Structure formats: C-alpha cells, structure tokens
Amino acid sequence: MLGMALRRPGKGHTRAYRPCRDHGASGFTLIELMAVVGLIGIISAIAMPGLLRARVSGSEASAIGSLRAISSAQSAFAASCGSGFFAASLALLGTPPSVGETPYIGPGLNLDPSFKSGYSVSLEPGDPAAGAPASCNGAPAGTVVGTYFVAAMPANAGFRYFGTNQAGVVYQARVAVAVTQSGAPAGALPIQ
C-alpha cells in the first residue's frame, strides 16, 4: 500500500499516502555517538604526550630562568651592596638596599626555599666572609659569603635537576646536582 492513493472517508477526495519519519525522534544514533567519542579518544591519546612534554619544557625553562635571575641578582648585590661578597640567602636578595628602592630579586624568589613552576629553588651559602663589612640592605658584618650554590629541584619525577654557583653557569643532570661552591658539579653538564 505504500505510495498508493487512498480514499479518505469524508469529503470524497484522495490523498497520497506517504510514510514519514517520526519528526519528534530526530538526533544521533548510538553508533554515531560512539564513533565520535572514539575519535575524540584517539585524538586525545595522540595529543597528550606532546602536551605533557610542552608542560615539562615550560617548567624547566622557568627553573633555568630563575637560576639565571638569582645569579644576576647575586652579581648586582656583590657589586653594589655586598662589598664584593654574595648574599647568604634568597631573603637577603629580596631585601631592597634602602626604603623605596627595588630589591635584587623579585617577590617570587625571595624565600628560602622558593617554589616556582614545579621546582623548589634554594640557595646554599658558602662560608661566611669573616672580615666583610655589613651590607647596605641589613646583613650584619661577617655574614655575607664568598661563594654560593643555587639548586632547582623538581617536585615531579621525570624532570631534570639544575644548579648554578657564582661562576654563573647553569648545570643540568637527571639526578640532584651536587652542591659545588666553585667549578663544575660532578656528573652535571652545562646548559648551552
């Protein structure tokens, strides 16, 4: 009977009968939805390792930048405030020389240790310089140091470790960089 004309009771005219879809049930089938979810899963599986590598690279770049900033701050401190000696703590680098002036290091790195982008950054001072005068930002006489080492240790496994000393060279290793007050730490490679 499909497609055939049917006589409707009543007014005496004919109308073609055409089967039609139920218009209230429009949408996607379960198979179509499963295919879309599967496709999203495959794309996510492909993209996830790249996104994680980008995150690791960003955290490592931040740690390297922090070490370089601390090294520059130590050089500025030694030249202008420490009479040729270095600050014994990150907190001292975060103290301005006088009221209203800019500290040597920003507020994100002025705690011992500082936590930034998944890394713990800490300063390991060398021996205090006994004959050193007081610094211009409040360190008592004999408390500034002649050497220092700054380490950046990751909070998560799989990241590289970094370190630097008064030479200003940033070193990297897959294990914690050995505290070395001068020269290259054992087992660590300089970053080019």
Characterise the protein shown here.
This protein starts with a strand and ends with a strand. The chain has 192 residues and is α+β, with helices and mostly antiparallel strands. The chain is elongated and about 85 Å long. A hairpin with a 6-residue loop joins strand 5 and strand 6 (161-165). The chain contains two helices and eight strands; from the N terminus they run ββααββββββ.
List keywords for this structure.
alpha+beta; six-stranded antiparallel sheet; about 30% helix; elongated; single chain; 2 helices
Radius of gyration: 34 Å
pLDDT < 50 runs, ≥5 residues? none
Q: How large is the count of helical segments?
A: 2
- Gross morphology is elongated
Overall pLDDT: 87
Multimeric status of the protein: single chain
What percent strand? Answer: 15-25%
Task: Tell me the domain tally.
Answer: 1
Helix content: 25-40%
Distance separating the two termini: 83 Å
Element string (H = helix, E = strand) = EEHHEEEEEE
Strand order of the largest sheet: 3-4-5-6-7-8
Largest sheet: 6 strands, antiparallel
Structural class: alpha+beta
Number of strands: 8
